[in-house]
Design brief:
Blueprint lengths: L1 E7 L3 H13 L4 E6 L5 E7 L3 H5 L5 E5 L8 E14 L3 E3 L2 E3 L3 E3 L7 H14 L4 H4 L12 H14 L2 E11 L9 H12 L1 E9 L5 H4 L3 E12 L4
Parallel strand pairs: 9-10
Antiparallel strand pairs: 1-3, 1-4, 2-3, 5-8, 5-11, 6-7, 9-11
The site of zinc ion has 5 residues, from strand 5 and helix 3.
Length: 230
């Protein structure tokens, strides 16, 4: 069976180093191609011998050959929690919400956007937001998570995916959030470049840390649709 791999090559030198590592492992490679940003390289490769290479390299499997049977969709999920504290603004889905408490965090601590970003990154296979936006980096101090969401969207598109839809849930005992639903959905849709966004709200009926008002959690799933790459 033949498959297509993406090499996360930042430079041509790095690309050739990775390609050499693959072929030196005895895995036949019959086709390689740079993508437009020189960040990605498509390599058609025999997947029978893929597992051993996968274990010791940064090779990322995308789809299976032939194209007629390749997977057009990818799904990812995200989950995030932030602690509620006094003296911080409460920002959810890019919307400033009047409340006695806000969420603690290095950025604006927008727990909804963070869950969405993790879902998008997960769908592509790019890890989590902590790997891309360190919470010790000064650049991200108090930054709007919508900006980070837009960067994740660019990343998703650079891997030849578009966001088909996002479905997310905020778990909070208080405040009531339904009035802000549309604004959140529009913000996320615009910045994630998502065709459809749905945001839901629930409580945990007074149970657990969200029920006690100690924090707010969010969950999200995201479906990506693959664009034609060749
Ligand atoms: Zn977070």
């Amino acid at each position: 069976m033949w498959g297509i791999l993406l090499l996360r090559a930042q430079t041509l030198t790095n690309f050739y180093a990775q390609l050499h590592a693959i072929t030196a492992s005895g895995v036949p490679c019959i086709y390689a191609r740079y993508a437009r940003h020189a960040l990605l390289v498509h390599v058609q490769i025999c997947t029978h011998k893929f597992a051993a290479v996968w274990a010791r390299s940064s090779i990322f499997p995308v789809n299976e050959y032939p194209y007629g049977g390749m997977y057009m969709f990818r799904i990812g999920q995200g989950y995030d929690v932030h602690r509620l504290t006094e003296g911080r603004a409460l920002v959810l889905g890019g919307v400033n919400i009047p409340f006695t408490h806000g969420l603690e965090g290095h950025s604006d601590a927008d727990v909804l956007c963070h869950a969405v970003m993790d879902a998008m990154l997960g769908a592509v296979g790019l890890g989590d937001i902590g790997q891309h936006f360190s919470d010790t980096t000064a650049e991200y101090k108090d930054i709007s998570s919508l900006i980070l969401l837009a960067r994740v969207a660019e990343l998703v598109e650079s891997y030849y995916f578009t966001v088909e839809n996002i479905d997310a849930t905020i778990i909070a005992q208080a405040p009531k959030l339904a009035a802000y639903r549309t604004d959140m959905e529009v913000n996320i849709s615009e910045h994630a470049r998502a065709f459809a966004v749905n945001v839901k709200f629930t409580t945990e009926e007074g149970l657990g840390f969200t029920g006690a008002g100690k924090g707010i959690a969010a969950q999200a799933v995201c479906l990506l649709k693959r664009r034609d790459i060749l």
